[in-house]
Amino acid sequence: MSKNLASKAVSGLKWSSAGTIANAVMQIGYTSAMARLLAPEAFGLVALSAVILRFGYYFANLGLNQAIIQKEELTTENIRAAFTSSALLGAVFTVLAWALAPYATLIFDMPEVVPIVRVMALAFVVGGVSATATSLLQRNMRFKALSIVETGSYVVSYLGVGILLAWLDFGVWSLVYASLVQQALVALGAYVMARHNVLPVVRWEAYRALLAYGSKMSVISFFEFIYTELATLLIGRVFGAYRLGIYNRAFMLVNLPMYNLTRTVSRVVFPSFSKLQSETDKLAKVYLSSTTLLATLIIPVCLGIMIAAPEIVYVVLGDQWGEAIPVLQVLSLAIPLSFITMFAGIVCDAKAVLNWKIVITITLIIVISGLFFLLKDYGLVGFGFALLISELIRIGMYQTLMKKILYLSYWKQLRVYLPGLLNGAVVAVVVYLMSTLLRGMELPHLVILLAQMITGAFVFLAMILLFPHSALKEQLHMIFSKLGVQDNPTSYYGRMLMRYRKSLVKETEHV
């Protein structure tokens, strides 16, 4: 990776991380407030409506946003073609969703979903208008601008509009309107930052390259959506809106922090990987290091969530959400696996190895459908275990594909999980022992949760900095270098840092 590209990637990570942390903190407050103002059915109805609309989302975009980022040489005509296509398709799918909304009752026997779907369908046209601008910001690694737009829109829409409307008894509509306002503000802010040409273009050549790649990406995204949302569809159909609301909130509690952590990285990694698409050796090295760092971070966090599940549910959602605890514990094992394979998927996108990705996703849909059928008698926990098993299968399939296109052995790929598994096991044991002690003292849930978070963070940092696994040492040394951390022999901490970095280099040379 060139110094200029590495510098942009690091800068992008810094700004994306800052925006992600800010949004995560606000999302916790928003979720906690809304869970107390609204009934579980409200979240279930919005979840069902969102799933229905996402059936059309991937074809409304046709993968044009990924095509803009992935294309090595992008012309002004390509940009105009992408905007023209996205805007027109967004308008068409808004009209289609409005007209076809009543047929949603054929899937779910819930007439109240129909008006929600019709209003939420406005997101198609808003998203179509904004897709090109946000993709250009990502392609050019202008993550500072993107973070400012997204954070500002979240404050206004969710913390302002959403909570206010819920307090005024708008019920489920407070969730709907907050989402639409946020998307509209992102569309406006992204265009102000990107300022691309919006004139329509009629020459087919301007569309050809984008649609050739984007159409396949659209199909892949659609199948991945089916795989991801199959639980929502089946739970809503079999158990109804109440149980779906329980599952949805449990899923959110573990998926939201993982999404925020990985979204920061993935938005920077895809344009970076795309620029390395013709350099297989460099791409393989970056893939391994990226996956090592992500697994090292995600696995301990999710195992900590599994141990602290009771306190997380009671503090964030409230006492009436106790049914979500066992579901959250199972999902905290399943969901991190899907995020860890994220980089393998990005490698396929960057190198345009899309047919194999379609095969993997269709296979997973078949597998998880069968598992849901076999485990449905175990209720929501059974759905969680079905997801866990299917994610293990996904890892195996992607490792086989990475062996084929990046020439990486299975051992090299499996080795990247070792630091995360080791650190996660230690964090889970320590947090469990401390939690057992504090729960026996019958302390408030908030006090126990704070103690769990502090203890988990301390143990995690101690394992990373004092006892780093050999597979992690090279990545740690790289991080210190890229972040511009300088040795300072004039201070005690500076001398400690010098010795630590030298130990990383020496030990790395022996690995």
From TrEMBL:
<feature type="transmembrane region" description="Helical">
    <location>
        <begin position="286"/>
        <end position="307"/>
    </location>
</feature>
<feature type="transmembrane region" description="Helical">
    <location>
        <begin position="414"/>
        <end position="434"/>
    </location>
</feature>
<feature type="transmembrane region" description="Helical">
    <location>
        <begin position="381"/>
        <end position="402"/>
    </location>
</feature>
<dbReference type="GO" id="GO:0005886">
    <property type="term" value="C:plasma membrane"/>
</dbReference>
<feature type="transmembrane region" description="Helical">
    <location>
        <begin position="446"/>
        <end position="467"/>
    </location>
</feature>
<dbReference type="InterPro" id="IPR050833">
    <property type="entry name" value="Poly_Biosynth_Transport"/>
</dbReference>
<feature type="transmembrane region" description="Helical">
    <location>
        <begin position="113"/>
        <end position="133"/>
    </location>
</feature>
<keyword id="KW-0812">Transmembrane</keyword>
<feature type="transmembrane region" description="Helical">
    <location>
        <begin position="327"/>
        <end position="347"/>
    </location>
</feature>
<comment type="similarity">
    <text>Belongs to the polysaccharide synthase family.</text>
</comment>
<dbReference type="Pfam" id="PF13440">
    <property type="entry name" value="Polysacc_synt_3"/>
</dbReference>
<keyword id="KW-0472">Membrane</keyword>
<feature type="transmembrane region" description="Helical">
    <location>
        <begin position="145"/>
        <end position="168"/>
    </location>
</feature>
<feature type="transmembrane region" description="Helical">
    <location>
        <begin position="354"/>
        <end position="375"/>
    </location>
</feature>
<keyword id="KW-1003">Cell membrane</keyword>
<keyword id="KW-1133">Transmembrane helix</keyword>
<feature type="transmembrane region" description="Helical">
    <location>
        <begin position="42"/>
        <end position="60"/>
    </location>
</feature>
<feature type="transmembrane region" description="Helical">
    <location>
        <begin position="81"/>
        <end position="101"/>
    </location>
</feature>
<protein>
    <submittedName>
        <fullName>Membrane protein involved in the export of O-antigen and teichoic acid</fullName>
    </submittedName>
</protein>
